[in-house]
Automatic annotation (TrEMBL):
Name listed for the protein in its UniProt record: 3-oxoacyl-ACP synthase
Domain Beta-ketoacyl-[acyl-carrier-protein] synthase III N-terminal: from-to ranges: 108-186
Record keywords: Acyltransferase, Transferase
Pfam hit, one: ACP_syn_III
InterPro entries named among the record's database cross-references: ACP_syn_III_C, ACP_syn_III_N, Thiolase-like
Domain Beta-ketoacyl-[acyl-carrier-protein] synthase III C-terminal: 246-338
A GO term, aspect molecular function: 3-oxoacyl-[acyl-carrier-protein] synthase activity
Gene Ontology BP terms: fatty acid biosynthetic process; secondary metabolite biosynthetic process
Length: 350
C-alpha cells in the first residue's frame, strides 16, 4: 500500500534497566551455550512496572513531540503480546485515559509482534475514511516479568525484553513521511506455534507457561515419526512483504538507508529476516541496539527507529524500513522517509 499522505508526527519509547546475559548465566537463568549462540548482551527488565504504564510514558513523549492538541486525535490503537492487567479489563482505555483523556475510540490490535506496523496500515485507512480526522495515537507495551513466561528459556530464537513505544500518525506533517506499508501471511503455518496443544481449555488457565521450544520439539518428533510439519519459511513472507512495499513505493532495497527490525537472536535474525533481504544486520540493521534490549514484542521496530533517529544515525532524506512479524505466520513492514533530524524537530517545536 502506497501511502505518502501520512506522517509520523511524534515518537516515544520507554526502555527499562538492562540485565546482562552474563548475570543471567551466573544466576542459572540462561544456558551458557544459548548465550554464546544468541549474541545477546542484555535485555531490558521492567520488574513490577505495569506494561500499559510503559506505553503511557512513551505516548506522552510522542504526543508532546507531535505539537498537536488533544482534540486533534481521532482515536488510539494499542498493541500488546503479553497480559496487561486484570482479566476482563481494558488496557487500551486505561492508556487513553492516562494520555489523551478524550471520548475517542480506543481499540486493541491483537497482531502480536507486528502490532505497531499493522497499526500504521489500519491507522492510515482509519484517518483517510473521514476527512475531519487528523491524527491517531499508536501505543504498545509489554512486561514479561510474570510467572506465565520464562523470558530466558521460552524460545531459543529470542530473549524477551520489556518496554513501551508510541507513535503519532498524522495527516499534516511530521518528522517522517510514511511512504508505504505491506504485510504477507501463510496461514498454513499457524500450527507451528500451536505445537499440538489443545485449544480448550487454554493452557494459561491451567497454569501452563508459554513454551515455544516445547512446541517446536513437538514438530521435530512428528517429523521423525513420519508426519510432515507445516511447511513454509518466514524469510519468504519477509521478502514478499518488503518487495510489495518497495514496488508500491517505486523503490528498491538500495534506496533503504537502515532497517529497524525485530530483536531476535543472531542466527534467527539472519535466517528469517536479514539473509532473505541480503542485508547485513551489523551495518544496515539495528543489531547493536537490539542485542542490548531483547525482543519486546511490538515495541521492537519503533524502538529501533527512535534509536536510529535520536542518535543521528539517520537524518533528512534517509529511508528506514521498519520490519516486524507475528505468529500466524505473518510478516509486516513500513517504509518511512526522514524529513527532519531529531535536532531539527526539537528546534521546530520551540
Amino acid at each position: 500500500m502506497r501511502i505518502d499522505d501520512m506522517y509520523l508526527a511524534g515518537i516515544g519509547v520507554y526502555v527499562p534497566e538492562q540485565v546482562s546475559t552474563d548475570q543471567a548465566v551466573e544466576r542459572g537463568w540462561y544456558d551458557p551455550a544459548d548465550q554464546e549462540a544468541s549474541g545477546m548482551l542484555a535485555v531490558t527488565v521492567a520488574d513490577e512496572t505495569p506494561a500499559p504504564d510503559m506505553a503511557i510514558n512513551a505516548a506522552r513523549q510522542a504526543i508532546e513531540m507531535s505539537g498537536l492538541e488533544v482534540d486533534d486525535f481521532a482515536g488510539l490503537f494499542h498493541s500488546n503480546v503479553h497480559y496487561q492487567g486484570p482479566d476482563g479489563w481494558s488496557a487500551h482505555h486505561y492508556v487513553l485515559r492516562k494520555t489523551l483523556d478524550t471520548p475517542v475510540p480506543a481499540m486493541e490490535l491483537r497482531q502480536g509482534c507486528n502490532g505497531m506496523l499493522a497499526g500504521i496500515q489500519l491507522g492510515t485507512c482509519y484517518l483517510r475514511a473521514v476527512p475531519d480526522r487528523t491524527a491517531l495515537l499508536l501505543t504498545s507495551g509489554d512486561n514479561f516479568s510474570t510467572p506465565a513466561v520464562d523470558r530466558w528459556r521460552s524460545s531459543k530464537r529470542f530473549i524477551l525484553g520489556d518496554g513501551g513505544a508510541a507513535v503519532v500518525v498524522a495527516k499534516h506533517g511530521g518528522f517522517a513521511r510514511i511512504v508505504a506499508a505491506a504485510s504477507q501471511s501463510n496461514p498454513e503455518m499457524e500450527e507451528l506455534h500451536r505445537g499440538g496443544e489443545t485449544l480448550f481449555p487454554p493452557g494459561i488457565t491451567l497454569g501452563q507457561k508459554m513454551d515455544l521450544e516445547t512446541r517446536m520439539e513437538y514438530w521435530r518428533k512428528q517429523w521423525a515419526s513420519g508426519v510432515t510439519p507445516p511447511m513454509g519459511h518466514m524469510g519468504d513472507l519477509v521478502r514478499g512483504a518488503v518487495d510489495t512495499a518497495l514496488n508500491d513505493a517505486g523503490m528498491s532495497l538500495s534506496d533503504i538507508t537502515r532497517v529497524a527490525h525485530v530483536h531476535f537472536a543472531a542466527e534467527a535474525l539472519r535466517e528469517m529476516y536479514m539473509d532473505p533481504l541480503g542485508i547485513d544486520e551489523g551495518k544496515h540493521g539495528t543489531w547493536e541496539f537490539a542485542r542490548r534490549m531483547g525482543h519486546a514484542g511490538a515495541v521492537d521496530a519503533v524502538a529501533g527507529l527512535h534509536h536510529l533517529w535520536t542518535s543521528g544515525q539517520v537524518g533528512e532524506g534517509d529511508h528506514v524500513l521498519l520490519l516486524g512479524a507475528t505468529p500466524g505466520m505473518e510478516a509486516g513492514c513500513a517504509i518511512v522517509e526522514i524529513l527532519q533530524s531529531a535536532d531539527q524537530r526539537t528546534e521546530a517545536l520551540k
